[in-house]
């Protein structure tokens, strides 16, 4: 089984790691696990303020901060994984990585921001669920 675990820098990501670890133990064979963190692209004006090398360092620091805790939790669970960091729109990037990894399952956290806010703006998780060609496991 191939699993794409999409993470951010929140406690929900750690909960998703624990859920994946439990799922992995239930499988006959260890899953092929891909961990993805996507940093939304800054506006052009903001990138310009950073200077030439600045945006790249910003994006790297954001992904490293998000992946560090996840990496430690996965290592403690003794799960092999491949890390992926990307910059761009979150939903299309998650879906593209799932396709590239030939994922059988996408695991993503949900922050539960509330029904009214989700109705007005929608959430990343809802959009991934709606557009994913493979099952999506949502962790709260």
Low-confidence stretches: none
Share of helix, binned: 40-55%
Q: What's the β-strand tally?
A: 5
* First-last Cα distance: 22 Å
Number of helices: 6
Assign the structural class, choosing from mainly alpha, mainly beta, alpha/beta, alpha+beta, or little secondary structure: alpha/beta
Q: CATH architecture, please?
A: 3-Layer(aba) Sandwich
State the strand order across the main sheet: 3-2-1-4-5
Q: Report the principal-axis shape.
A: globular
User: What is the CATH class designation?
Assistant: Alpha Beta
Major sheet summary line: 5 strands, parallel
Question: Can you tell me the number of structural domains?
Answer: 1
The CATH superfamily is identified as: HUPs
**CATH domain topology:** Rossmann fold
Order of helices and strands: EHEHHEHEHHE
- C-alpha Rg (nearest Å): 15 Å
What is the arithmetic mean of pLDDT? 90
In summary, what is this structure?
The protein is an alpha/beta fold and 140 residues long. It has 6 helices and 5 strands; from the N terminus they run βαβααβαβααβ. The chain has one domain: HUPs (Rossmann fold, 3-Layer(aba) Sandwich).
